[in-house]
Amino acid sequence: MDTRYASCEKVIFVCDNLNTHTKGAFYEAFEPQRARAYAQKVQFCHTPKHGSWLNIAENELSAMTRQCLHGRRIGELETLRDEVEAWSKDVNSTQKGHILDRLLTQ
To answer: Which of 59, 56, 30, 31 is nearest to 45 (CA)?
Structure first.
C-alpha cells in the first residue's frame, strides 16, 4: 500500500472468511500510526461463506486464457510475460470496479 496503491483513496481486499482478515491484523504487524493509516484506507470484501477464494483466481485465469492466450502458441517466456502484462493492464483500466461492485452488492 506504500508503493503500488499509495495514490489510491481506498484499497479493497477480496479475501476469504478467515478470522485473521481484519483491520486488527494491521496493529499486530505494524506500529500503531502506520496500522491506523492502513486500516483507514482498506475495505475488506469477503467471499461468500460457502464459496472459495480460489474461484476468483480461477475466473481470472479462465478470462486471461480466453481473452489473451486462446489459440496462440507463445514460444518465449518474455513474450508471454509481455502479452499477459498488456492484457492485465487493459482489463484493469477498462473494467476496474465492475467485479468488486457485484461482490459488494451480494
So the answer is: 56
